[in-house]
């Protein structure tokens, strides 16, 4: 499937572009959730599922197309600036399935010429031929779930690949795509700051432009939660976790991948545009089992969510044309609080005037002054509010204080 074919449309392109021109020029993302994995990692609380029987990809592709059509009918005239195929493990899909999904998006919305199309992949499902197929289908960026670069940690995390396989997968991504990223988890059991610094330097030497670096969290309902409660899984204490965070910031800054979001690091201009849609409070459509969306319909922000169970979602779409089970209207206060919560994750911070426009009230100047005095935030000459490097480790408290 060619790159042009991936975004072909059977409807009049001119009419779609005319509709798009009526929209204010804003980012609009489409998130597509592929919910299947080869195995379930013991730390993962994402909506992911293991199926031992073959997945009927053609049936799922058809359902994705129907839900895309139904969503576009509710939110017409948008120009898609980013698409993110997440999971689960989207790299378990055949390239033809990915192409069919992208075709459906191109059929119902106008797609920007420089659209960013990201696909998540695990090293165990990376093959050069498959990546070439994704590229031909229209994918132009991949994000690899590497998670660690030493075999002992990978085994402890329940990963099915080795460190060598992970680096080989990164090399395939480098040959196949101009843009690629990979994830690592830190604050792992028995990890020291010195060990993490060495691993991080290796990671940055392999990363062209972007890394996502997440601190291990113990989520209720996961196998790790039970082990942690029983004292069989020990994670670094608060002091060591803070030292690991500090090593992350210092090493990435020094080697040219500074943080642009609390857990994401990139060279200038290489930020993940799709994730910026979330953090900047823009619109996005959520397609597939358990996908969330934020759509502006008749001037009101809708928070949508679809059925999480894959087979139940499939039946809902085949019966109703969509799998949406939640469609909440966000009031001005809720929308402003969400903007604050997401926007302050970014090192670029937020414009308090936008918060005021959303909520109908300004942020409390006394609280801003106190947080500035404590060194948790700064306010520049234009009035833009940013969390400082010392404020980021206590971001939740900063947001709660400002929102109160």
Describe the structure concisely.
InterPro entries: Aldolase_TIM, Coproporphyrinogen-III_oxidase, Elp3/MiaA/NifB-like_rSAM, HemN_C, HemW-like, rSAM, rSAM_sf. This protein has 404 residues and is of the alpha/beta class. Helices cover 42% and strands 22% of the residues.
What features would you describe in this structure?
The protein has 16 helices and 16 strands. It has a nine-stranded mixed beta sheet, sandwiched between helices. Strands 12-13-14 form a three-stranded antiparallel beta sheet, with no helix packed on it. With about 400 residues, it is of the alpha/beta class. The protein folds into two domains: about 30-280, TIM Barrel; about 345-404. The longest helix has 18 residues, at about 55-75.
């Amino acid at each position: 499937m060619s790159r042009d074919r991936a975004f072909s449309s059977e409807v009049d392109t001119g009419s779609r572009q005319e509709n798009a021109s009526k929209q204010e020029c804003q980012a609009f993302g489409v998130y597509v959730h592929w919910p299947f994995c080869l195995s379930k990692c013991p730390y993962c609380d994402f909506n992911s599922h293991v199926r031992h029987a073959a997945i009927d990809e053609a049936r799922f592709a058809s359902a994705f197309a129907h839900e895309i059509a139904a969503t576009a009918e509710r939110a017409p005239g948008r120009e898609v600036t980013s698409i993110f195929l997440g999971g689960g493990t989207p790299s378990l899909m055949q390239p033809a399935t990915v192409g069919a999904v992208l075709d459906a998006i191109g059929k119902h919305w106008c797609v920007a010429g420089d659209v960013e199309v990201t696909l998540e992949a695990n090293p165990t499902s990376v093959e050069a031929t498959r990546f070439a197929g994704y590229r031909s289908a229209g994918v132009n960026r991949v994000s690899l779930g590497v998670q660690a670069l030493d075999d002992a940690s990978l085994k402890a995390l329940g990963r099915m690949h080795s460190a060598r396989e992970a680096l080989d997968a990164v090399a395939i991504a480098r040959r196949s795509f101009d843009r690629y990223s990979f994830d690592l988890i830190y604050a792992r059991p028995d990890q020291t700051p010195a060990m993490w610094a060495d691993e991080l330097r290796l990671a940055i030497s392999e990363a062209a432009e972007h890394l996502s670096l997440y601190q291990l969290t113990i989520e209720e309902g996961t196998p790790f939660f039970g082990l942690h409660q029983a004292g069989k899984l020990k994670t670094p204490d608060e002091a060591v976790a803070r030292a690991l965070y500090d090593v992350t910031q210092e090493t990435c800054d020094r080697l040219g991948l500074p943080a642009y979001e609390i857990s994401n690091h990139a060279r200038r201009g290489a930020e993940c545009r799709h994730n910026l849609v979330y953090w900047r409070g823009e619109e996005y459509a959520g397609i597939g089992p358990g996908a969330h969306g934020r759509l502006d319909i008749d001037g009101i922000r809708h928070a949508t969510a679809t059925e999480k169970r894959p087979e139940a979602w499939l039946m809902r779409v085949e019966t109703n044309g969509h799998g949406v089970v939640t469609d909440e209207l966000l009031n001005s206060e809720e929308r402003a609080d969400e903007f604050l919560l997401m926007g302050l994750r970014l090192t670029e911070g937020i414009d308090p005037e936008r918060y005021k426009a959303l909520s109908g009230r300004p942020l409390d100047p006394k609280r801003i002054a106190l947080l500035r005095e404590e060194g948790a935030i700064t306010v520049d000459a234009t009035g833009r509010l940013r969390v400082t490097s010392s404020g980021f480790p206590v971001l939740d408290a900063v947001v709660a204080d400002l929102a109160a």
